[in-house]
Write a structure and sequence with these properties.
Layout: H1 4-10, H2 12-24, E1 28-33, E2 39-44, E3 47-49, E4 52-54, H3 62-69, E5 72-77, E6 87-91, H4 98-108
Antiparallel strand pairs: 1-2, 1-5, 3-4, 5-6
């Protein structure tokens, strides 16, 4: 699985689409898989930091429980002013590293 930095280096035009969409509306939709296998959709604000993409998720959130059990996700940004779209899939991983968490918090302004 590629990191955001690797993806952006390989497909800079696609990475630019997401960054422009996030400048306009900083929300995407994150689809996860419930325990029963059905989909669940959540609005999230992606954070690009250190060449990686992160989503801050509260401990009690259903999306966190979904991602811990089954890391698969799909993310779709809202269509842009010219109907630009951005969609990715991948596997989420919990980040416990204090240095990375601080970097993400600093970039997000938390």
């Amino acid at each position: 699985m590629a990191t955001w930095g690797e993806f952006a280096a390989e497909r800079p035009e696609m990475a630019e689409v997401l960054l422009k969409l996030l400048d306009w509306i900083p929300i995407t939709y994150l689809a996860t898989v419930r325990k029963d296998g059905s989909p669940r959709v959540h609005p999230v604000c992606p954070i690009i930091a250190g060449g990686r993409m992160f989503v801050a998720v509260p401990e009690w959130s259903p999306k966190r429980l979904d991602l811990r059990r089954d890391g698969r996700y799909a993310m779709h940004a809202l269509p842009g002013k010219r109907d630009d779209e951005f969609y990715i899939t991948g596997r989420a991983r919990l980040v416990n590293d204090g240095e990375t968490r601080k970097l993400v918090g600093d970039v997000a302004g938390h």
